[in-house]
Amino acid sequence: MTAGPDRTPLSRGFFDRPVLEVAPDLLGRILVRRTPDGPIEVRLTEVEAYAGLADPGSHAYRGRTERNAVMFGPPGHAYVYFTYGMWHCLNLVCGPAGTPSGVLLRAAEVLHGHERAHERRPKARNDQELAKGPARLATALGVDRRLDGSDVCAGPDGPMEILTGRPARPEQVLSGPRTGVGGEGATHPWRFWIDGEPSVSPYRAHTPRRRNPTSRQVGT
Q1: Which residue from 24, 32, 40 is spatially nearest to 6, judged by alpha carbons?
Q2: Can you say whether the dihedral through the CA atoms of 37, 43, 45, 47 is positive or negative?
Q3: What's the predicted TM-score (pTM) here?
């Protein structure tokens, strides 16, 4: 009989590490999202690391703003931003306070609460597409800016929590350039995913585009 996933919550110390250690270590972990309609649980299958002040692809590269302030706080909190005037994206803050790094959650396999995820993602053709991509993941989980700053280490009363799950084995973890990141950070191999997972989103290189003044790149 296959043992069930480890339900132990990840401690703040898990996130209080360099982002390039935390990001691949999140693969296979379980994110619990508690909503008024009931919980949704997903297994993380794809993430991207953003190294703050040292990373041209990061929202925090040019310093602290009202929008990215959560990234400069303590680890183990959610950074949620709105992009292209349409979508939210969910990130987890890493490293000590004042070191604004974070992990963008790009894709996941829905384990529990499929019906609730489908209600939020009615265009998904199957369960594998429910959280295939960062905007889809946030939508399926009912994540928006109201959860910006949420403490994912606050325990079972919080809106989100990360459980130990079954971490991906090192030989299962692949890496490559981050999706849609251009400029100096384009070639950083800081996107990590579980090999062979159908929920992983397709890679897309950065394509320069004309955007309105309120739009933003996907990344942290």
Answers
A1: 32
A2: positive
A3: 0.91
